[in-house]
Amino acid sequence: MKIARFRYEGELGFAVLDQAEDGSGIELVELIGDPMVTGYDTTGRRIPLEDARLVAPVIPRSKVVCVGKNYADHVEEMKHVTGGGTADVPEEPLLFLKPNTSVIGPDDQIVLPTIAERVEHEGELAVVIGAVAKEVPVERALEVVFGFTCANDVSARDLQVKDGQWARAKGFDTFCPLGPVIETDLDLADATVETRVNGEVRQHGSTAQLVHSVADIVSYASHAFTLLPGDVILTGTPAGVGPLVAGDTVEVEIAGIGILRNTVV
Ligand code: MG
C-alpha cells in the first residue's frame, strides 16, 4: 500500500493511492488523519493524483538517523576523501543524525548553501518508523517499521572533510528530500536504488548490497536512541556519488516505491 501526504485546495491531508475505478489513472483516497495515528479510515473523497501536490510523506517527529558507509562499493570510492571517517567498511553501523528541518518533499528545491563548494547527492532507501522503539531485538525490528520511502542524503562534501563531524555538512535546510510516497510492503531482498542527475544514471545499487540489513540498522539505532513514530532512518548510499549544481534535476528511484525528484538552486 502506498501512503501519500498531499496539499489540495490549500489543505494538507493523508491518502492511500488507488487506481481510479474508470481506469483513468491514480487517485488519492483521502484518510481522516495521519494513518500512523488514526489508521486507514477514509473520508470517502477521491482526488485525482495530478490535481494534488505531494509533500514529504512524513515529517520526522524527532530525528533522521543515517547510516554511513553501508555499501562496500561506496566505501571504496570514498577512500580518497579524508576526514570522512574510517576507510574500511565499519563492523557496526556508523550512525549520524540530520535535523528534521532538513526535510523537504518531492519537487521541492534543494538549496545550495553559499558556504559550501561541493554538494553531492546520495540516493538512499529510507525506513519510516511506526512505533516507539527502544532496544528492539533484530528479529523483531521490522515490527516497528511503518514503511519505506526514497531519500537523498544531500551532503556538502567539502564541509564534511573540513569539519570532521558531519552535522553541518549533512544538516543544511533542504538536504533531506523524502518521498514521493511511503510503501508499507516493500520487498527488501533486492530493491533497486537508482539516482539520476538530468536523466543520467549516477548511482545504481540494490538493497541486496546493504552491509547491515534494515533489521540490523533499526535494532542497532534503537539501542542508541528511542525511536519515535515518524522518525526516519536512511540506510546508506551505493557507489556513484557526485556533485550537484544549480539547475540540476536529481531523481532517486527505488523499485516498488517511486521516483523522488528535486531541482537544485
Ligand atoms: Mg548517506
Description:
This protein is mainly beta and 265 residues long. The chain folds into 2 domains: 2-54, SH3 type barrels (Roll); 64-264, Fumarylacetoacetate hydrolase, domain 2 (Alpha-Beta Complex), CATH 3.90.850. 12% of the residues lie in helices and 40% in strands. It contains 5 helices and 20 strands. The chain has helices spanning 35-38, 72-77, 157-163, 167-171, 214-222, and strands at 2-8, 11-19, 26-31, 42-48, 53-55, 64-68, 94-98, 103-104, 109-110, 119-121, 123-129, 145-152, 155-156, 176-183, 192-197, 200-206, 232-234, 242-243, 249-254, 258-264. Strands 1, 2, 3, 4, 5, 6, 7, 8, 11, 12, 14 and 17 form a 12-stranded mixed beta sheet that branches. A hairpin with a 3-residue loop joins strand 19 and strand 20 (258-264). The mean pLDDT is 95. The structure holds magnesium ion. Magnesium ion binds at residues 66, 68, 122, 124, 153, 234, 236-237. Magnesium ion (MG) binds next to strand 6.
